[in-house]
Amino acid sequence: MMNILIAGVGGQGTLLASRVLGRYALLSGKDCKLSEIHGMSQRGGSVVTHARIGDKIHSPVIWEGGADMIIAFEALEAMRAKHYLKKGGILLVNEEEILPMPCIMGAATYPADIQSALKSEIENTYFIKAQEIATEAGSAKATNVVMLGCLCKLFGFDKALMQQAVAECVPEKFRELNLKAFELGFQRV
Fold first, then answer.
1. Is residue 53 part of a domain?
2. Whole-number Å distance between alpha carbons of 27 and 104
3. SS percent in the chain: helix, strand, coil, step 5
4. Which of 7, 21, 124, 138 would suit a FRET pair with 60, their CA atoms being 20 to 30 Å apart?
5. Are 95 and 133 within 8 A, CB to CB?
6. What pLDDT digit, counting tens, does each position of 25-65 carry?
7. Cβ-based burial of 82 (10 A; exposed 0-12, middle 13-18, buried ≥19)
8. Region of 44 on the Ramachandran plot (φ > 0 left; ψ -120 to 50 alpha; else beta)
9. Is residue 16 part of a domain?
10. Based on the structure, what is the number of domains in the chain?
11. Which CATH number covers residue 120?
C-alpha cells in the first residue's frame, strides 16, 4: 500500500496530479481511493489531496503520520502538511513561494527559511525548482507534472505506465508539453 498526500494552492494542479495517480493505479492493476480537501482554492487557498494505492483500499483519507510521501507544490504548504508524513517518508517540495492573503495584506509574514527548517526536521526532503523546469518544458502550468516525474523516479514507479497515465489525463493539445515536463522532472530530481 502507498499513501501519497498532495498539498498546494488553488490553481496549481493538485487535482489533476491526483487524477494521474489514480489512473496510474488502475493501469497498474491496483485499487485507488482519492479524497480532496479544498480551502479557498479559487482564491489561492490550500488544496490537499489524499491518494491511497494498494491491492484493496477501504478509506480514501490518510491519517496523521501515515503518508509515505508528501508532494508540496508550494513551500508553506509543505510546512502545513508535514504532520501527515510517516517516519522515513519522503517530502518533495517545489521551491515556489506563493504568499497567502494575510501576508499580502500585511497581517502576517511569510516564514523565513522554510527549506532549512524542513531539511533539519525531515531526513528525506527534496526541493526542486519545478516551476522553472515546467517553464523550460513550455508552460509554468505543467509544474504539477514535473513533480509527478520526480515522484515516479523517487518511488520507483513504472515510468511507462506513469507517462501513459499523464497522456490519458491531460487534454490532447497539452499532451506533448506535459510529457516533456514529466521527463524533465524525472531526470532532474
1. yes
2. 42
3. 50, 25, 30
4. 124
5. no
6. 999 999 999 998 766 555 567 889 999 999 999 999 999 99
7. buried
8. left
9. yes
10. 1
11. 3.40.920.10
What pLDDT, in 10s, does the model give residues 142-158?
Answer: 999 999 999 999 999 99
Place of cell 511569510: 110
The rounded mean pLDDT for the chain is 93
Q: What is the pLDDT of residue 38?
A: 62
Task: Give residue 25's domain range.
Answer: 2-130+151-166
pLDDT tens per residue, range 65-107: 999 999 999 999 999 999 999 999 999 999 988 877 778 888 8
Supply 79's cell numbers: 510546512
Give the chain's length: 189
What residues form DSSP beta bridges with 36?
49
Tracing cell 489561492 back to the chain, one arrives at: 44
Which letter does DSSP use for residue 187 in this model?
H
- Supply φ then ψ for residue 180, to 5 degrees: -65, -45
pTM beyond cutoff 0.85: yes
Alpha helical stretches, state H, 28-174: 75-81, 101-104, 114-121, 130-137, 143-155, 159-169
Report the percent of the chain where pLDDT is more than 90. 80
User: 18 is written with which cell numbers?
Assistant: 491526483
Distance of alpha carbon 41 from alpha carbon 47, whole angstroms: 6
